[in-house]
Write the structure tokens for this entry.
Amino acid sequence: MIVALSSFLLSRCDLRDAARDYHLAEHHHHHDHCCDCGHEHHHDHPLSMAERCRSALCDTLSILKTTWFWILLSVAAAAALESYLPLEQITQVVADHSMLSGLLAAVIGFPLHSDVFSITPIIQLLRGMSEPVALTFTLSAMVTSVPSVVLLTQALKPKAIVRYVGILVLLTLCCSLAALVIL
């Protein structure tokens, strides 16, 4: 539902100039060439598998160099949340099933880097206390994170990133409110 609504809302935004200019030849270091001839230029022939793999590896390493800190920080925050946040405090905050609980779950979830393995224990814990709060945390942790926003800065301009993240946050909070009312 969030994917469909966010796609619809983003299609209504004027994002014609949202993408950053990205030129492969300028992106790579001076020693990266499209072939072994020693000059930076483009050939009319398609790249070989080895050339494509080399290009993909260079792009991956370049992005990793600019994002590794944020990915590591976010993974550490998720681990710290899981390991050090006392169960009693979570239970106390979530027990009233109020909108504040859903909002708190969203605020905690949005910046975290998450995958199914890192947040499953947290989801199971929250689900036992409040299903709407568990849903809110799951959605917020999955729709965006600090590392994903950092990666988006490689492709999108700040205005587009703010719109994208804003729409995802708004839709997640709307789902949270709906879950609190329905469940």
